[in-house]
Amino acid sequence: MNKLKQKILAEVEEDLSEIETALRENLNPHFDLVRETASHILFSGGKRLRPLLMVLCGRLCGYSGDYDKIFSVVFEYLHAATLLHDDLVDGASLRRGKPTAHSVWDNSTAVLVGDFLLARSLSIGTETGNLKIIRIISEITENMSQGEIRQLMRKGNLKLSEAEYMDIIRCKNAVLIQGACRVGALIADAGEEEESALSAYGFNLGIAFQMADDLLDYTSDSGTLGKNVGADLKEGKLTLPVISSLEAADPIDRDEMEEIIKNKDFSLRDFERLVEMLEIYGGIRYTKHQATRYVEQAKEAISIFKNSKTKQILLNIADFALSRKH
Amino acid sequence: MNKLKQKILAEVEEDLSEIETALRENLNPHFDLVRETASHILFSGGKRLRPLLMVLCGRLCGYSGDYDKIFSVVFEYLHAATLLHDDLVDGASLRRGKPTAHSVWDNSTAVLVGDFLLARSLSIGTETGNLKIIRIISEITENMSQGEIRQLMRKGNLKLSEAEYMDIIRCKNAVLIQGACRVGALIADAGEEEESALSAYGFNLGIAFQMADDLLDYTSDSGTLGKNVGADLKEGKLTLPVISSLEAADPIDRDEMEEIIKNKDFSLRDFERLVEMLEIYGGIRYTKHQATRYVEQAKEAISIFKNSKTKQILLNIADFALSRKH
Question: Rounded to two decimals, what is the model's pTM?
Fold first, then answer.
């Protein structure tokens, strides 16, 4: 485990353990099938990044009640619901090194338990009686669904532009993390300035995390990553390292890259050749550069808050986006 | 078309056409894939029962604004979202005589477009800024998802009890129609007495409609029904006509019925034999009797309203539940 991660974890240990408890307790009253399937995806080594961010942002704005952990499960449920449907849509067989829910159970179970988690998020959100919070949850849901559909429509499309890629990760990833941070401000009754600062922090962090995630497909081995080698490509997903390298490549190399990408049964050798091209044409470098830029923007966004232990953790989490190995 | 249906349709013609317009206009700004897939399920001969009920219940309580049709799409979207996921879960190949969405497109599309329609419902609901309405939508969503999961868990279970069956159709069907009627009262700012009367009307009507629907599987030919012969049984769904006949049957006949049910490839002859048993052991009669009872309760519930054209339509719709052929 890298040092930054160790440091963050040591500081949020108690929060994380309370979030775990809230996640388990909220699932307990439900049927076995929901509990088992939802637990499979919820308790398989997820980072709890989204609930944690909500809790930390609430604290940064002075929240001191005891409802934050309970409410934070909304953001893990929304995340897990998307993963359940997403893995099915992608035909992914592994997530975090474990077989995906639709391969352990079946498509039906993955669909319905995803629906259930979405419905639960909504119910918990509605219980707050806070219209602004409810609107955020509804926007997240609509954006995530639009992002998924855009991604599906562009699956295998070798002409995917950087703008289209950005639009997809904005909808699918950034809006959720942004919402979690913004809701943190809202439960603390923070002012508009704090709310929009944390909203910007979350948005930029969400983009950076996804770019870093997309990089890992080309810079990490599958054992560390817990998915199959070249999983994104096999699922027909073009991400920034590939998009920007394809744009920069000369015609002959681009043809070679496209051949590898189009052939879903590419060999490990083919994949290594592709990664070499991503190095040559700067796709990996460019993606790292962009992710770094978003991390900087995330950190800059919270400069309005005075220094505190909580602020430091948020800054560390932003830096962690760039340093993680899986 | 039966006379009652003709009569109802003549009286709600304008409402239905405005609901159609609202449904189309709401879909127009969205991507082709959503529009096509959603249109496939939305514009394939659905009755628009749910939005229509919302509009009529609003009018009964004195609503005279112009937001009702736009808002009523929520209930058709929620319905369509469930159908998309439901057909996938059931592996159903036909709905209303047309191939189901997941067979025309694929599982991924059906899942994501269902998610999208659910998210849209939520957004439209949230736009009202009315917490009571938002809570109802959230309850509907949670109930429908729980009903689906319960049904999935009990799929093929020959020991399904009448109480379990009632619980499933309550969650999956009645709560949505109940919610549509109740929201009609709410948009009209009706008093609590009206709200709970229409809530009871909708609940009882929803149960009656589903029982009538379940009966059609055993009393209608597949041409009229637009599904395959014995579709419910082939999908492992035990409904009231079968449940109550199994309970009443003597051991030998019960064994024979169970053999037919367990063999998903039953012949037309087997199916006819089963229907004969449902006649002998009173399952069809009992279901008709129960559906009639719920229709009477629905009508009784709105006795607090003074007579009007709108009330008469609601009474006719309740009677129609029992008389429809598909």
Answer: 0.90
Nearest to A85 among B111, B141, B144 (CB): B111
Nearest to A115 among B31, B85, B138 (CB): B85
Token digits for B264? 């998903």
Cross-chain residue pair A131–B126, CB shorter than 8 Å = yes
Multiple choice CATH, A3-323, 1.10.760.10, 1.10.600.10, 1.10.10.10, 3.40.190.100: 1.10.600.10
Inter-residue contact B260 to B225 (CB < 8 Å): no
Q: Locate the domains of chain A by residue range.
A: 3-323
pLDDT at B309 over 60: yes
**CA dist., res. B229 & res. B202, Å (int):** 29
Among the listed residues B135, B202, B148, the one whose alpha carbon sits nearest the alpha carbon of residue B175? B202
A146 CB neighbour count, 10 Å cutoff: 24
Tens of pLDDT, residues B61-76:
999 998 999 999 999 9
The beta strands (E) that lie in chain A are given as: 94-95, 98-99
Give the model confidence (pLDDT) of B150-187 as tens digits.
Answer: 888 888 888 999 999 999 999 999 999 999 999 999 99
Residues 6+ away with beta carbon under 8 Å from B229: B221, B222, B268, B271
**Cβ of residue B172 closer than 8 Å to a chain A Cβ:** no
Q: Are B169 and B211 a contacting pair, CB within 8 Å?
A: yes
> ipTM > 0.85?
yes
Beta-carbon contacts of residue A180 (< 8 Å; ≥ 6 apart): A50, A51, A53, A54, A57, A72, A75, A202
Which helix or strand (DSSP H or E) is residue B94 part of? Answer: strand B94-95
SS3 B102: helix
Is A206:A213 a contact under the CB 8 Å cutoff? no
Q: Which residues of B298-310 are buried (b: 16+ CB within 10 A; e: fewer)?
A: bbebbeebeeeeb
Interface of A with B in 56-75 (CB under 8 A): none
Backbone angles phi, psi at A325, to 5 degrees: -105, -15
